Give the backbone structure.
Amino acid sequence: MHKKLTTPAQKKPASTVMVKPRWTKEQIALLKRLHKSRSNAEIAQALGRPTHSVAFKAHRLGLYKSASRLRKMGQENIRHRWDK
């Protein structure tokens, strides 16, 4: 008798497997348009995606923020945390 081999993905019940939504052309275009002027959190909210997903996709596309924009975003993040 031969034992059937299974991969770890096959052992998980279907309800626990997460399928990540693909980026559409429209979402990528919006990301490219807003990236330099808006924070990743603002873009994520507009796209309905997690912030880390926006940051990772921007990195993969070769999009970078200027040093002055990064500094301003850091100040906004601190202000946001302290205002709560």
User: Anything to note?
Assistant: The two ends are 63 Å apart (CA to CA). The chain has one domain: 24-83. The helical segments are 8-11, 25-34, 40-47, 51-60, 67-83. Residues 24-83 form one domain.
